[in-house]
């Protein structure tokens, strides 16, 4: 019954989308030819001819919405993901329209009308979906439109799944209980009871009107997975598998198909893709050249001040660990008194450190001392954005103490990074810094790099933890 309801809801959703498409299109035409922009409009096509285009636009856009998963159940879809898919579908729709006009050499339809349609439709489709989200949330919190389910296996995965379901009643899931062979019947976790052994599936499945089964076996019981999946699928009940290895395999694992054999990579690194790496390198070269030109007056001024206030070299070169664990010399403006390399290489700077010069304290606090790293970026040792590089001594120390620490060396180190713009610089938690670095490595995109560079100007230069 619930499956039928969801199919009917998807159809209703498509009807709503079709209405919104027509409304958006009409509003765009109205603004262009009747409203505030009418004075500059040249009507070479009639209203009827414009409206006739909807015969092509509506089915194409509905197919695009289907392709971008906008008709999948809205129980657990993130709102930002929905918005992103709406923008992608509409962007592709606009490109198809413009390409079609170009191919048929049609220049009489107003391009500005279709651009307005693009903007209006995104806004209205988003508003319509947010209204649907709100209505469904209220229904499910009142006990309507819910899915009945059980968990097979008591494990960390089961507990984490129950935690999320209970914390999000708007998803509309009701967990009836847990089946497990190693935990006594009657054991509870947050009000969800262990009902009995896994073999009881033979009794429960025919008697209960379950909508879903979540297989939440512990790692030690995976040898039973094939047997349990076969049993669940024989009943026709939708079955999903919630793995107990989420601490090992990332949320979005990178899978390969080797002649029909699925292979899951432990870590997905988008920058291992040659095209992605070339795009990022091109951005680094262009960005470093622009950065050097723009900051050259400031760097010359710092050189003069350093020379006048403290004896020693202008540029301080320090060994750091970079891409593929290779060491390189990282450049910084010298902000401390000259000291033996053996003494400084094993010690972090502390608050009110007497080794820091007066101008050095200012440069560290404002991150001006990092500007020479633009030359490291131009050379290819570093990137504009990436995990900050560390000294070899600390790398050897942290690789033993912090799980997954060495993963950061699968990409080039950066002048700034996701951890830095989120406040993890200087004397802050190394573990949290690595968490943010891993997120960046696994979720890299050009957009994320641009976002980090933008945030650096507002949050990344001034560092209260730089001593």
Give an overview of the whole structure:
- It is a single chain.
- The protein has 467 residues and is an alpha/beta fold.
- The protein folds into three domains: 2-141, no CATH class; 147-248, Rossmann fold (3-Layer(aba) Sandwich); 272-460, no CATH class.
- It is 51% helix and 12% strand.
- The protein is built from 16 helices and twelve strands.
- It has helices at residues 2-33, 47-52, 54-67, 79-103, 111-141, 156-167, 201-207, 225-235, 274-309, 341-344, 358-366, 373-379, 392-401, 418-421, 430-442, 446-460, and strands spanning 147-152, 173-179, 188-189, 192-196, 212-215, 238-241, 254-258, 261-265, 315-321, 327-333, 383-385, 414-416.
- A six-stranded mixed sheet has the order 3-4-2-1-5-6, sandwiched between helices. A two-stranded antiparallel sheet has the order 7-8. A two-stranded antiparallel ribbon has the order 9-10.
- A hairpin with a 2-residue loop joins strand 3 (188-189) and strand 4 (192-196).
- Helix 4 runs antiparallel to helix 5.
- The longest helix is centred in the middle third of the chain and has 36 residues, at 274-309.
- The chain is flat, with a radius of gyration of 29 Å.
- One of its GO terms (cellular component) is membrane.
């Amino acid at each position: 019954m619930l499956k039928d309801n969801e199919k009917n809801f998807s159809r209703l959703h498509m009807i709503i989308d079709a209405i919104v498409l027509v409304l958006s299109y009409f509003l765009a035409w109205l603004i262009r030819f009747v409203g505030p922009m009418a004075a500059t409009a040249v009507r070479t096509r009639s209203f009827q001819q414009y409206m006739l285009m909807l015969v092509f636009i509506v089915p194409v856009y509905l197919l695009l919405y289907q392709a971008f998963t906008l008709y999948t159940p809205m129980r657990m879809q993130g709102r930002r993901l929905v918005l992103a898919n709406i923008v992608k579908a509409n962007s592709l729709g606009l490109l198809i329209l413009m390409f079609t006009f170009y191919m048929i050499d049609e220049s009489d339809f107003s391009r500005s009308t279709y651009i307005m349609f693009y903007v209006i439709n995104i806004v209205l489709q988003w508003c319509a979906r947010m209204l649907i989200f709100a209505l469904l949330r209220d229904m499910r919190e009142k006990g309507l439109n819910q899915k009945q389910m059980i968990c097979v296996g008591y494990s960390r995965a089961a507990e984490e799944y129950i935690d999320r379901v209970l914390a999000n009643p708007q998803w509309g899931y009701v967990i009836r209980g847990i089946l497990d062979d190693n935990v006594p019947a009657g054991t509870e976790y947050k009000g969800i009871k262990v009902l009995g052994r896994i073999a009881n599936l033979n009794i429960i499945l025919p008697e209960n009107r379950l909508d879903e089964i979540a297989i939440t076996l512990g790692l030690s019981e995976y040898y039973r997975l094939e047997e349990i999946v076969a049993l669940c699928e024989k009943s026709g009940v939708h079955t999903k598998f919630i793995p107990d290895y989420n601490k090992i395999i990332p949320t979005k694992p990178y899978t390969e198909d080797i002649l029909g054999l699925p292979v899951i990579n432990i870590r997905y690194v988008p920058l291992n893709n040659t095209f992605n790496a070339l795009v990022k390198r091109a951005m680094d070269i262009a960005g470093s050249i622009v950065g050097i030109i723009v900051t050259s007056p400031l760097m010359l001024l710092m050189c003069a001040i350093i020379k006048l206030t403290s004896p020693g070299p202008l540029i301080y070169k320090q060994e750091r660990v970079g891409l593929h664990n290779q060491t390189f010399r990282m450049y910084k403006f010298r902000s401390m008194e000259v000291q033996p390399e053996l003494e400084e290489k094993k010690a972090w700077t502390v608050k009110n450190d007497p080794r820091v010069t007066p101008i050095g304290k200012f440069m560290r606090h404002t991150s001006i001392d990092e500007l020479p790293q633009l030359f490291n970026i131009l050379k290819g040792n570093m990137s504009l954005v990436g995990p900050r590089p560390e000294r070899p001594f600390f790398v050897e120390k942290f690789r033993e103490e912090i799980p997954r620490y060495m993963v950061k060396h699968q990409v080039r180190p950066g002048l700034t990074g996701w951890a830095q713009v989120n406040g993890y610089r200087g004397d802050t938690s190394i573990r949290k810094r690595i968490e943010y670095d891993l997120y960046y490595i696994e979720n890299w995109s050009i957009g994320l790099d641009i976002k980090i560079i933008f945030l650096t100007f507002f949050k990344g230069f001034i560092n209260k933890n730089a001593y």
